[in-house]
Description:
This protein is an alpha/beta fold. Helices cover 39% and strands 14% of the residues.
Amino acid sequence: MDNSYSFNVTNDTPRTCYLYVTSNCNSNCSYCVFRKSNDKIKRIDMTLDFIRSFVLESKILRSCKFVLQGGEYTEHPEYLEIARFFKNHDIETTLLTNCIEPEKVLALEPEVGAITVSYDGTPHDLVRGAPNNTEKIKYFLRASKRLVPITLQMTLGPWNMRSIAIHNFLMICSLYKTNARFNVAQSDGLLKNGNYEISDRNLSIINTHIKNIGRTLGVDTSDGSEYIEQVIASKKGKRLPCRSLSMYTTITANGDVLLCQGLEYTQAKVSNIYNNNFDIIWNETSSLRSLYKKCTACYLSCQLIGDLKYVKEQGELK
């Protein structure tokens, strides 16, 4: 498993914070609540001054890795300054971006620890409502100085459950020497926007394509294939025990602190960072997190990959 899903298995202390610095976005992904055409969502930018204050006053957050995202992270007016703040305080970061503005991503390359670009293969530009997005991603990959690890992440849904889409995605990973990661779209949780459930049979078929095409193109897809196998098991009620609540935390652009990204928002929200110190919030919700240790509500990669890594390290995976 790659180290961006790091965690501490010995105590109840998060190792990764998913920080939604903005709810603004410049793409129109049909399956995402943050899409720019959604006029029901309130658009918010979390200021650098506030980020600085709540991170530095928290002993827990100062030891976390941060995944910087949105909406679209590069839509934040202080996108460079925020990344530099974390770098100047030796706090590890990963940038999650759609790369619609590749020059901004190139500017961020020296400031972050890793970059993950969301790319869904054919028909990416149509699904994302972002003309020429594919060419912009390729431009970034060509222009990148490879200062940090770069990963392409494909979200699997009804729009790309075909071998040609998988081949297109893995071909670009092979051509530009990037890591490959997969996520399976689901209808619940923070990004909920419609019903995009995929049958077990179709997931099994597409996973076979991923293995075979990855082998042919020389792209390591073992982590992704194993993740998809666990998604299939989860959909059959055999999900791994959830340790994610002790590994990760999520803070949205309006300051809400969530148990995780896989639960319904009203169920996931536990407090707001504008009202309380994060360490107090974390410690006061310990018993609440314990209630969800057997939760099977999601199979998001950011949750399930950590759980999978945990049981493998503990020798629990049969």
